Amino acid sequence: MYNSYLPKKLNIKKVAICIGIVLMIILAILVGKKLGIHQFSYQYVQAVQEQANVLEQEKQIAKEEEQKRIEEEKKKQMLTQEQIASVEGIYHAEQKRVFLTFDDGPSQSVTPFILDLLNKENIKATFFVLGNRVEKQPEIVKREYEEGHYVANHGYSHVYSSIYASPQAVLDEYTKTNEIIKNAIGNSEYNSKVFRFPGGSSGGYYDAIKTQAKELLKQNGIAYLDWNALSQDAAGAKTKEELIQNTIQTIGSKNSVVILMHDAADKILTYEVLPTIIQYLRENGYTFMNLYDIL
Ligand SMILES: [Zn+2]
After folding, report:
1. Is 103 one of the catalytic residues?
2. Are strands 287-289 and 229-230 parallel, antiparallel or unpaired?
3. Which one of 42, 157, 236, 237 has the largest count of C-beta atoms within 10 Å of its C-beta?
């Protein structure tokens, strides 16, 4: 009994030690594994974080580059201070030169006839188009552009209480009209760059708004242009003789002339007197120019 008991007791001790060792090994493996997994997951989180940081940085750089591109694009479309000065100084020139300008168009009943005549006479003019008119006759403005005339901006509405509601309203009408011109001529990068205030850039009930609007336009790289001669085709003159006389009188002895005329739907007389006016200017030594020549 004793002999058989002792070995049995020793075996239990051995078994217990063995189990202990096995448990220790298992524990060591588990702890090791756990540490390993922990380290792995820490590294993983760190890698993901770094990746996210890189993406965020790339996004930031792309955003800054896009911003820079937009600003450069805008700058490209803005007139430089020198160009604005050359529009402002348009009335001063050594040589005799004349800018024929037509406002309030395009119109189906007048503009194409004027374009045909300018074509025949090989003269490039400047058209201060109205946004709401360009919407109706975009193909005529496209023709003006393609034939080398300068398509400038006369705002959208021509309604004084709308466009002169605030200086910002002037800029908004400019921008709206510019978008319409872009679509009409099929050039998404076009900018008319020169604005003509309906009714002129100063005086009248909205003089204070106009003064502020001029500054706002300038800040946005946009020049404005009035005139120093006119046929009065929009105000008073009823006959061909009157139109011609008014034009010649206001040209006077000026060297650099900007003539205000209109190609709105009811201004067929303007077209009809144009050959006489052109002839007068040629005979008096004027060179025909448009805004492309000074910008
Ligand atoms: Zn007008």
Report:
1. yes
2. unpaired
3. 237
